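Morning, I've got a small favour to ask if you have a moment. I've been staring at a protein lately and its backbone has me curious. You're getting the sequence in one-letter code plus the fold written as tokens. I've dropped the whole record in just underneath, so have a look:
=====
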Amino acid sequence: MKYLPILSLFIISILNSNSANAQYGTDGGRKFDALLQYINYAYVDTTDENKLVEDAIVNVLKELDPHSVYIPSEELKKMNEPLVGNFEGIGIQFNILKDTLIVVSPIAGGPSEKVGIIAGDKIITVDGIGIAGIGLKNSDVQDKLRGKKGTKVNVGIQRRMNKELLDFTITRDEIPIFSVDASYMATPEIGYIKINRFAKNTDEEFKEGLKKLQAQKMKHLIIDLSGNGGGYLKTAIQLADEVLDDKKLIVFTEGSKSPKQEYYTSTTGGFEKGKLVILIDEGSASASEIVTGAVQDYDRGLVIGRRSFGKGLVQKPFSLTDGSAVRLTVARYFTPSGRCIQRSYEDGKDEYYNELARRYEHGELMNEDSISFPDSLKYQTINSKRTVYGGGGIMPDIFIPIDTSMYSDFFGKVNRKGLFNEFTLLYMDNNRTRLEEKFKSVEDFSSNFNTEEELFNDFIVYAEKNEVEPKEDQVNTSKTLILTRLKGLVARNLWGTSAYYQIANSLNNSYLKAIEEINSDSFKKEKLVYN
């Protein structure tokens, strides 16, 4: 803390160096500039001024809040990619198995799919240089296969049933990064959409999924935001606008130097009527909490799961002279009822980021009774006057404890070693054609694929060969979980990510509770708005 005054002056100096921010300049900024000049002129050892600058910025931001950060110029583009929604490359999902690059699936409409690359292909050479057996890493793959739109790369593909390498020339293009992982019918009347982030294109992806489900006679909807760490405020507002009717306050922001700003629904949404459930957990943050808070405050739907992360600080990017940037917190988010989404960070960043471990240790993830709120944090919903809570994060209407009943040391070890993915890729390499001919849909596969007969014993043997001892009691504890994970991964290899969730959600208690609540009279009892 003792370094804060000098470091703060340095930040002021940096801002003052940009003519657009000249109003921030003070004598203190020039004072720090003088210090740097003295170091350069008189200090006993050689110094790296760029490193001094970066260290100073990093340290001053540590003294602020947990979400104000410095981003070096070389990292800025990569950090933005998941939210901007695209990058430039060849368009494949891949895994590295036994030092060989395997195509899990080509991205739909991408350049690899267009030239005929298929799931299961092994990329052996890139521009004539062998890449198998050289200790390939994910970062190496990106370096070799990403590149500017319009440039070409030649790859040598090893494909099952072909003895010789197949040569492909791929013209790189913009590759979409999808934020909707799944959209399918959970029951004949209930649709399910899983969103992993709030990116530039999320609203369009959501609308596309919604239309697909409505074409299948969907009446009610589950939106799964569990594990969704947030993204763009604009996208959160767009998504809330899809499920709330017109002229509703979605969220407002306010900071000591940022006047109160309110954001309202403005268009007719695609799902303003029908029962709605939002799924959240301790990994749901920021934009996820904005949408969830608005839905809960207007009694538009039920929120099911566990208390969300509690990230309600608004960041604004400020560019620095070398292409780097500072994302500086400028305001806080508040739900329509006035609840502050941000939880306290008074005990420092370490304690702030240890919050999830603390929740586990205190039993909050397993027992709703371990969570207590003072009366000062009680709020009322706008229509039905139900009690909801502020103070950081969104507390669900229906609490679902984390399920550890099927977890064992054996499952943890095979999962951490990546054996599920490795084994599935090997299995698909030998069985893809047979499976594609036998099963014509996810539903057919889900009902008729015998995972235990096809995979289980071979997987246990594979785990043992990879130095994970299959203790019988642990294997029995996790058997259902293992079978479901393997079945889901096979389905993903055949039909994509949505198929994985269609299988895996059979063990998702929040998802199962959502279906139960939609099929009951809970919405009427709670006076929720859905007609």
Q: What stands out?
A: The domain at 180-402 is CATH 3.90.226.10 (2-enoyl-CoA Hydratase; Chain A, domain 1). The radius of gyration is 26 Å. DSSP finds 19 helices and 21 strands in the chain.
